[in-house]
Task: inverse folding
């Protein structure tokens, strides 16, 4: 009797977890491909801090020094985080390493990472419960320019953003954003997806 009750509780939970994983896999951005695994470049990640994000927390989340953090001007409330970006051998994708320290015992690590990094980090390999104090190795989405651009900024598209608004905000042409990201139709960008904004200078 006990066993039956346990099973009837566990099965739906497992199905739920399975569905959640499928959901994350199918909506999560794919990193930028690369082939030269000796390549290292400077890259930037655009991050919109919430009130809970102190400077110390941001430094820890991204494994950077204060000098690697720039606040966006013009009242956008974003910060740009400078990170070395490299072409990971094996997977042949551009990534940048960091660690995430779990600060609660609630929920899945995947969800905490998703919430903390807002689409800028790869989800960890396995679904596991959060344990306060554990340190998770993570990889961030970054890119190195293979064209005329000096830097690429990793940017997660928000409600209200468009290729046009990003072009004017970052002072680059719509064309170059479309080229770097393989966008055919600038009206069909996806909120929550990761894009790379090419920059001439940082
Ligand atoms: C970034 O890469 C440069 C060039 O390879 C290296 O000199 C520098 O130490 C790296 N910085 C960090 C924080 O790893
Ligand atoms: C996931 O695991 C594989 C194999 O163990 C490893 O190569 C890969 O780097 C891991 N991914 C992340 C994001 O840590």
Result:
């Amino acid at each position: 009797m006990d066993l039956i009750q346990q099973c009837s509780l566990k099965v739906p939970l497992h199905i739920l977890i399975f569905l959640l994983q499928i959901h994350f896999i199918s909506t999560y951005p794919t990193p930028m491909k690369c082939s030269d695994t000796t390549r290292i470049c400077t890259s930037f990640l655009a991050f919109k801090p919430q009130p809970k994000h102190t400077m110390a927390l941001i430094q820890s989340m991204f494994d950077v020094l204060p000098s690697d953090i720039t606040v966006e001007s013009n009242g956008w409330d974003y910060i740009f985080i400078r990170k070395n970006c490299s072409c990971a051998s094996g997977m042949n994708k551009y990534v940048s390493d960091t660690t995430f320290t779990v600060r609660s015992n609630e929920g899945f690590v995947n969800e905490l990472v998703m919430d903390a990094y807002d689409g800028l980090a790869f989800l960890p390999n396995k679904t596991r419960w959060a344990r306060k104090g554990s340190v998770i190795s993570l990889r961030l989405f970054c890119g190195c320019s293979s064209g005329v651009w000096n830097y690429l900024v990793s940017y997660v598209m928000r409600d209200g953003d468009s290729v046009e608004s990003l072009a004017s905000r970052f002072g680059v042409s719509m064309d170059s954003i479309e080229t770097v990201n393989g966008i055919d139709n600038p009206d069909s960008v996806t909120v929550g997806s990761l894009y790379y904004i090419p920059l001439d200078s940082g």
